[in-house]
Amino acid sequence: MNNLEALNSRKKNSLTRLTRSSKLFKAIIEAIHDKKAENVVSLDLRKIPEAVADFFIICEANNPTQLKAIADNVEYYVKEKTGETVYKHEGKQGLQWILIDYVNIVVHVMLTETRKFYQLEEMWSDAPLMEHSDK
Questions:
Q1: Is the pLDDT of residue 23 over 60?
Q2: Residue-wise pLDDT tens digits, 4-15
């Protein structure tokens, strides 16, 4: 696959208009809460033209073991509940920040210190933010 084909294969699927009530979105949030992630928020990027996804879901873990458990559970639970497989994931070696890419939704599982350092919510401050507390 040449570079242009690789770039085109990553584009958002505009045919699937996701919302926070979409099955995929809900499954991700449930999987994150199942492993006791903290400070779970979503950023709605749908009105930001340069955004690579419709939503970012960001959460934090207290240690690398929990970080990996959250990320693994998201992939497993989403596959079980929706049949969706992850497009790509990164960061499972470093265990500081694991990114799980479902094309229209990108999940960021971060250690607390890493999240404070990168401040994703600040970088995307023009996107509406919603907190997702564990029920």
A1: yes
A2: 344 444 454 544
pTM: 0.85
pLDDT tens-place string over residues 70-90: 999 999 999 999 999 999 999
CA nearest to 55, candidates 82, 81, 16, 84: 16
Query: Whole-angstrom distance between the N-terminal and C-terminal Cα of the chain?
Result: 44
For residues 53 and 105, is the Cβ–Cβ distance under 8 A? Answer: yes
Q: Domain ranges in the chain? A: 19-131
Query: What are 96-111's pLDDT values in tens digits?
Result: 999 999 999 999 999 9
Given a contact cutoff of 8 angstroms between Cβ atoms, the answer to whether 45 and 54 are in contact is yes
Please enumerate in sequence order all residues whose Cβ is within 8 A of that of 18, keeping only pairs 6 or more positions apart, or say none: 24, 25, 54, 55, 104, 105
Strands (E) across the chain are located at 38-44, 55-61, 88-90, 97-101, 105-111, 129-131
Q: What is the CATH number of domain 19-131?
A: 3.30.460.10
| Residue 106 tokens, joined | 């990108």
